Amino acid sequence: MRKWMEKVSRWKFDKKMQLLVTVSIIATTLIVLVVSTISSVTSMKQQSIELLQAQNSTTAENFKSSLDNYKTLAIATVMDTSIQQYLKAVNYNKEAGGLKSSAFNILASISNMHSDMNFIAVVGKSPDDYIYKGQIAISAAQFSQVYTFDAQQCKTVQDSSIKMCFNNAYFNGSKYTLNIYFPIYDTNRVLGELGLLCMNFTDPSLLQILEYDSSNKLESMVVDTDGMMISARDKDKIGTNVDFIPKMKEKSGTFSMGGRLYIYQKVSDWRFYVVSSVPMMELYKSSIRTIFLMAFILLFLLTISLLVVKRIISKVYRPLDKVVRKMDDVASGSLKTRINVEHMGEDFTKLAVGFNSMMEEILVLMEQVKMEQHQIEQIRFNALQSQIQPHFLYNTLECIHWQAMVDGNGEISTLVKALAKYYRICLSGGHDVIPLKMELEHVRNYLIIQNMRYDDIIGSEFDVEEAASDVMIPKLTLQPLVENSIYHGIKVKEGKTGSLFLKVRKRSSDVLITLADTGTGMSQQQIDEMNQHLSEYDDSFGYGVRNVNKRIELLYGEEFGLYYLRNESGGVTVEIRLPYVTQVEDGIIRGEMIHV
């Protein structure tokens, strides 16, 4: 090292400056490149965001205005006296000749006043009792064939009862229209429903998105707050669900996903978002030429710099390289490797001496580890010899069972017999994967024990398709889920009574097991968090359920496992999806089959 320093000190000033200038140019160029790139990209991104936000805001305002007008029109129509009187007449089988004519004139007047309305119709309680008025004939619109099903499929889009959907259900699928459905209530009776108002519009806001230039990389769409796509340039996506709704937490904003920049705007007072997206690369195109030029300059300067510093690095690194080579020898198994400390300089001599000392310590520690490992194996052997044989436990429980029978104590007999069957699967050297019918028997025994503990607070119902009873399932899959339902659902419920419903159905290539309870249930947020953490490690999440799901994933793949959802009774339902497999590969089953 001293010789090297002496050699450097003898360099000419220009040679020293060459190194200094090279490093300075590289640093300066890198800073300029980074600052220019960040400035250019940030500026272009901000301009694009502002432009798209303005566009989305305009579209959202126009769409809101249209929706508000549609709602106002719907309310005015259903409140009209002629419409009310006509529906009351047809619903109660009264003469409606003149009333129908008056109601038809009202619909005709509305249709004539709105150029974007394709048709308007009022339907009574009977599907055949309707009045239709439109710019297109009823046969061409296919109103009578479509409206019942379409009204059921549409979703409410506000806190009121108004339903809307944008599709091509009418007109033989030839065009996309906005369909609006509004229930007609008796103005003189609370909750007295008379019929249904149906309106069909060619909405300009949605149509503009639908007919957007396909050559443009910019995409615009309208989605509802549940994530269903209402209108999009790609018509095949209409009605499908998007996966970015959780990112839209404000009324407006931006986020990045899948290499695209998304800008969204909430349609005020309605359950819709106007969303625009553009590939991130489109924002950077104008800056790419500058970035490439600066990168070329940087590469050129780096090449020059490398040529200058290469010789210096090789000299500086040589002692360290010697240490690295010796470490490679150790990695290949040569534990007797040592470093010659001559001609290494003061700093690297210390490193070499430390390396040699470390190798000596490793040899000593390896001998200690071998001795300790031998002792551990001896301890394990002794522990195995001293284990209580599970059959002793089974035989003891069997004796208690028969003694209880002799003494006439049926409850103890039932409890001990169920416990014996329960532990045959839990403690024996049985299979890791067993037929579903054995797992169900295990659950039944568990429920017998729990009902005797808690005074029969748990009702149960098993509905098992015979074709699915032989499917192979990881042992102790259902019992932890049943236990969760009891302790976190039924026991904490007021009154502490509830029921479990277990249904098993075989589908084409898999089996679906549904376990539902009537317990206290969980909120949708809690359900979503549980599903999210099923395959993730989280100290705050119960390991029992996660272990059940993980065993299924490890055995059959990530497409199988658990999924939680709320049920109609207010409790929780868990779905277990398994492949329809009646035999498992060698190596999965260990020990002999235990029949219970």
TrEMBL record:
SUPFAM superfamilies: ATPase domain of HSP90 chaperone/DNA topoisomerase II/histidine kinase (SSF55874), HAMP domain-like (SSF158472). PROSITE patterns: HAMP, HIS_KIN. SMART domains: HAMP. It is an enzyme of class 2 (transferase). Pfam families: HAMP, HATPase_c, His_kinase. Its main location: membrane. It catalyses: ATP + protein L-histidine = ADP + protein N-phospho-L-histidine. Keywords: Kinase, Membrane, Phosphoprotein, Transferase, Transmembrane, Transmembrane helix, Two-component regulatory system. Signal peptide: none annotated. Residues 478-582 form the Histidine kinase domain. It is found in: Membrane. GO terms for molecular function: kinase activity. Its EC number is 2.7.13.3. The chain crosses the membrane at residues 291-309. The keyword Phosphoprotein applies. Residues 318-367 form the HAMP domain. This is histidine kinase.
